[in-house]
Amino acid sequence: LIATARSNKVAVVLGFQDFSQLKRDYGDKEAAVIMSTVGNVFSGQVVGETAKTLSERFGKILQKRESVSINRSDTSTSISTQLDSLIPASKISTLSQGMFVGAVTDNFGETIDQKIFHAQIVVDNDAVQKETAAYQPIPEISSFLDAEGNDTMEQQIQANYRQIKQDIVELVENELIRIENDPELKYLLDNNE
Q1: Same structural domain for residues 100 and 128?
Q2: For residue 121, what are the domain limits?
Q3: How confident is the model at residue 172 (pLDDT cuts 50, 70, 90)?
């Protein structure tokens, strides 16, 4: 579905609290297919196997290592390189609120140089509070309270149900009468046409 939707320019957004839920609900094989098919990945703090899987997905980077050895007569320095996780699982498992890691994909002609990210969502609390203060209450279209303040929602739902059922019965009866009174329709009905 994901690949088919993408080829038809339909975006699919999947949300999971943890990869273990994906495996539980779809099984190991289907979960692996889903995880390898999605292109863009955004994650907050996750632990365990999910953090490890994400770290592996983000890849490795060549890091310089410098070590210094000191003994009584001499000091030596050696420099080496080593492949380390670009975003280690330990970093993913200790992300603070508002911190995210992820990977994005690009398109032909729209290449993205920085595909892997570790970033913070900056929230303007003052702007959010101003916006929230300007909210208008949702108008109450109908109330289910009677004159004494009792909730009559269930009774009104049942009354609506009975009314709709009665309307359908009357509609069917009227159509049957109309068919009986129209020779052309009666002929079609009698001959199953």
Answers
A1: yes
A2: 39-59+87-133
A3: very high
C-beta of residue 37 within 8 angstroms of C-beta of residue 29: no
Give the β-pairing of 75-85 and 99-103: unpaired
Q: What is the largest CA-CA distance in the chain?
A: 118
In the structure encoding, which two tokens stand for residue 53, read together?
């899987």
Joined together, the tokens standing for residue 144 give: 């289910």
**Three-class SS state of 43:** strand
> Vertex 13, ends 97 and 38: CA angle to 5°?
95
Contact present, 90 and 30 (Cβ < 8 Å): no
> Do residues 99 and 160 share a domain?
no
pLDDT tens-digit series, residues 43-83: 999 999 999 999 998 888 888 888 888 888 888 888 888 88
